[in-house]
């Protein structure tokens, strides 16, 4: 099978990640239960007239995807695959709210059009004039991984040479307020550096857009090789270790081959035990990192993890701010990302220096 | 990459029937499912017609053995009913006895419930169970639980009105490449105020029965449905000595890259999708015996699709019809319901009528099949197009 190279990255997140020449040079700390993105100067990417009515998810994705394409040194691709848990939920919420408040009258189509989950993938295709394969995955915490699986399969099976793949989600009031009611989002603000010690239920919600160019050709800008991605709709704590080992085995790897495990701890006292389970058993001698204190939790937060893993391999540096245990990696070549959300939709993603 | 993708089970619920057999009987007896809306209290109720499923949520829950007070969206309930039927037909006793996946398409997710309680959530906790049911993946997760699928690839696709077609396509690709042995694919969408008002603002809803490919067509009727197929690899078919209903022979996905909500005048995306599907199947246009068209009855779609058919098939366009006059446009599920109809067409060697057609379009001389027709069918092509420029084509065949 053809190797799959990650040739470039693009990120808009709650940290200043939109500039690819930097790597977490300055850290923004929060004391909140929601963390919005640090906005790039959208005017540099989008004509102001167009930007005015554009959903934030589209804006973030435009910047992030353009940065990825620019870094890869290409103008067009064979396929566009986007993962998003909620799509441009800001527009969906506005449209519902207008329906109720105005008794189904005086509505305009823009909100409805942008609320279609595939708006981002469609807009990118429109902007690039890309008529190739165009998919949008909308499956909670594995939306981004589903996209990676599809992209990888396309390249390996020669259905595409170069694929733009990404994940995007917006932080929106009604969603936050309702999910706080049911305890999915923390009721009290938490300081970034104390996220894992909060011992309270719920997460700190974030947002972001992460795009990557995957290709069967290794570009000079290449970050790493994508070895494997697997998702599990259910997985019990007791079955975790066995499944991670089986996943590695299929790549002819053992736990000793993993230089760094990036874990999705989000400070939810009810669900972080999944990570603790691995951290104290299979990964007990493995260097570990975490990131949701920087990015916040959202359906495609693993886009940030994937960005982080790629940056670590390319720059050969492991920022202190993401280190979860005291074990110093001997080398930074093979990185495993493990994530789950509220005990469901588990994912394993493996990349290697190339 | 030369593996067959067998269809071993099908399930469907739509405005013309609560199961596959009822759907088939309605199609061949010309019984359409379009009516005034009864289950949603919308101010537009006298201006629109819809393809509404008869059963209430309470009735669906009772049939599925789900307690009435359980918070489940109509979208998820419809999915469970249709997928149960598909799994039953496929004779699956242990769904986890091989690498089994689930890929479902939806556009509205749990919006049918969320729009009811949007502000009420802040007044009372009575309906809080629906809060996390809004996201599109929720109906798929609940469906996976209902079917007992565990530790598996379960995902949701939302590419507007091509969602289920793309779910079928992804499932076929995952079987071909050996990632899955079995996969349940399809889609589900329920009617809700959100889509009724959305399409209303776009001014593409007809105030009467939709008339695909007719010169005087006034727009679409929204519908609701769920439809699923069980796809299995050659190995599983052999292992379990399965009866094969048909094969997913070809698939193609392209983007029109023309406009967020309209198709290009000459159907560029549709042409590319059909070309790709033909290439994957190894067939030529002359091998296609029947086309189940997207045919939404909007002025834009039918013109664009008609032109794309002429570009692919030239002056030899095979019999084609849109079944949306029966079901309405079921959005994400269109490609799923029509996949079931395509396989039924192959099994019964029958072409369904394009109802409500009277006046040929003036732009070209395409005439849809308007009566039930018996014809030996080997390959059926099905189109599904959506907002965002998403164009998908599937080809179903009797042989692998």
UniProtKB/TrEMBL annotation, chain A:
The keyword Transferase applies. Residues 46-216 form the Beta-ketoacyl synthase-like N-terminal domain. SUPFAM superfamilies: Thiolase-like. This is 3-oxoacyl-(Acyl-carrier-protein) synthase. It comes from the Bacteria. Pfam families: ketoacyl-synt. InterPro entries: Beta-ketoacyl_synthase (IPR000794), Ketoacyl_synth_N (IPR014030), Thiolase-like (IPR016039). Keywords: Transferase.
Automatic annotation (TrEMBL), chain B:
PANTHER family: 3-OXOACYL-[ACYL-CARRIER-PROTEIN] SYNTHASE, MITOCHONDRIAL (PTHR11712:SF336), POLYKETIDE SYNTHASE-RELATED (PTHR11712). The lineage of its organism: Bacteria, Pseudomonadati, Bacteroidota, Flavobacteriia, Flavobacteriales. It comes from Zobellia uliginosa. The keyword Transferase applies. SUPFAM superfamilies: Thiolase-like. Keywords: Transferase. Belongs to the thiolase-like superfamily. Beta-ketoacyl-ACP synthases family. This is 3-oxoacyl-[acyl-carrier-protein] synthase-1. Pfam families: ketoacyl-synt, Ketoacyl-synt_C. InterPro entries: Beta-ketoacyl_synthase (IPR000794), Ketoacyl_synth_C (IPR014031), Ketoacyl_synth_N (IPR014030), PKS_Beta-ketoAc_synthase_dom (IPR020841), Thiolase-like (IPR016039). Residues 2-398 form the Ketosynthase family 3 (KS3) domain.
């Amino acid at each position: 099978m053809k190797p799959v190279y990650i040739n470039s990255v693009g990120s808009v997140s709650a940290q200043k990640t939109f500039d690819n020449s930097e790597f977490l040079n300055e850290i923004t700390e929060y004391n909140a239960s929601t963390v919005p993105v640090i906005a790039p100067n959208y005017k540099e990417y989008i004509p102001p007239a167009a930007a005015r009515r554009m959903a934030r998810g589209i804006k973030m994705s435009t910047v992030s995807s353009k940065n990825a394409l620019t870094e890869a040194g290409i103008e067009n691709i064979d396929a566009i695959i986007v993962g998003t848990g909620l799509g441009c939920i800001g527009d969906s919420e506005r449209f519902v709210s207008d329906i109720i408040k105005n008794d189904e009258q005086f509505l305009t189509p823009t909100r409805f059009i942008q609320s279609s989950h595939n708006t981002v993938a469609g807009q990118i295709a429109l902007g690039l004039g890309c008529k190739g394969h165009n998919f949008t995955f909308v499956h909670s915490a594995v939306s981004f991984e589903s996209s990676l699986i599809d992209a990888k399969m396309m390249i390996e099976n020669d259905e595409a040479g170069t694929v733009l793949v990404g994940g995007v989600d917006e932080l929106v009031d009604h969603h936050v307020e309702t999910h706080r009611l049911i305890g999915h989002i923390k009721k009290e603000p938490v300081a970034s550096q104390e996220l894992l010690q909060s011992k309270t239920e719920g997460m700190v919600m974030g947002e972001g857009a992460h795009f990557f160019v995957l290709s069967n050709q290794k570009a000079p800008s290449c970050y790493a090789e994508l070895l494997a991605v697997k998702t599990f709709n259910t997985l019990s704590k007791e079955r975790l270790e066995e499944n991670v080992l089986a996943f590695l085995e299929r790549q002819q790897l053992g736990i000793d081959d993993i230089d760094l495990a990036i874990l999705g701890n989000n400070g939810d006292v009810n669900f972080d035990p999944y990570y603790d389970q691995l951290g104290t058993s299979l990964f007990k001698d493995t260097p570990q990192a975490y990131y949701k204190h920087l990015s916040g939790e959202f359906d495609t937060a693993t886009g940030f993890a994937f960005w982080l893993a790629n940056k670590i391999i390319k720059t050969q540096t492991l920022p202190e701010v993401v280190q979860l245990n005291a074990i110093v990696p001997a080398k930074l070549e093979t990185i495993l990302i493990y994530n789950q959300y509220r005990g469901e939709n588990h994912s394993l993603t493996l990349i290697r220096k190339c | 990459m030369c593996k067959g993708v067998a269809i071993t089970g099908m399930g469907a619920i739509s405005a013309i029937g609560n199961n596959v057999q009822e759907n088939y009987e309605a199609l061949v007896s010309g019984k359409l499912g379009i009516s005034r809306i009864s289950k949603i209290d919308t101010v537009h109720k006298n201006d629109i017609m819809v393809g509404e499923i008869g059963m209430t949520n309470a009735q669906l829950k009772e049939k599925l053995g789900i307690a009435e007070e359980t918070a489940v969206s109509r979208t998820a309930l419809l999915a469970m009913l249709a997928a149960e039927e598909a799994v039953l037909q496929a004779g699956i006793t242990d769904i986890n006895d091989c690498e089994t996946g689930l890929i479902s398409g939806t556009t509205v997710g749990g919006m049918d419930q969320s729009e009811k309680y949007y502000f009420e959530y802040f007044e009372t906790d009575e309906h809080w169970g629906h809060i996390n049911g809004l996201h599109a993946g929720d109906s798929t997760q609940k469906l996976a639980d209902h079917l007992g699928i565990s530790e598996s690839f379960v995902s949701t696709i939302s590419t507007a009105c091509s969602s289920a077609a793309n779910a079928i396509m992804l499932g076929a690709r995952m079987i071909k490449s050996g990632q899955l042995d079995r996969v349940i694919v399809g889609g589900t969408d329920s009617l809700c105020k959100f889509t009724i008002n959305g399409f209303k603002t776009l001014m593409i809803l007809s105030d009467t029965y939709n008339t695909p490919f007719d010169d005087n067509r006034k727009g679409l009727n929204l519908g609701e449905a769920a439809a699923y197929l069980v796809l299995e690899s050659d190995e599983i078919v052999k292992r379990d000595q399965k009866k094969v209903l048909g094969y997913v022979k070809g698939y193609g996905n392209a983007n029109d890259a023309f406009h967020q909500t309209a198709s290009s005048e000459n159907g560029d995306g549709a042409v590319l999708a059909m070309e790709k599907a033909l290439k994957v199947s190894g067939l030529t246009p002359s091998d296609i015996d029947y086309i189940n068209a997207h045919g939404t009855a909007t002025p834009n779609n039918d013109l664009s699709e008609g032109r794309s058919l002429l570009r692919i098939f030239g002056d030899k366009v095979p019999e084609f019809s849109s079944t949306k006059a029966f079901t309405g446009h079921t959005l994400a599920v269109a490609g799923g319901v029509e996949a079931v109809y395509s396989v039924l067409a192959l099994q019964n060697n029958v072409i369904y009528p394009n109802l409500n057609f009277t006046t040929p379009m003036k732009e070209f001389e395409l005439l849809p099949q308007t009566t039930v027709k018996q014809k030996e069918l080997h390959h059926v092509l099905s189109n599904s197009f959506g907002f965002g420029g998403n164009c998908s084509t599937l080809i179903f065949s009797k042989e692998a």
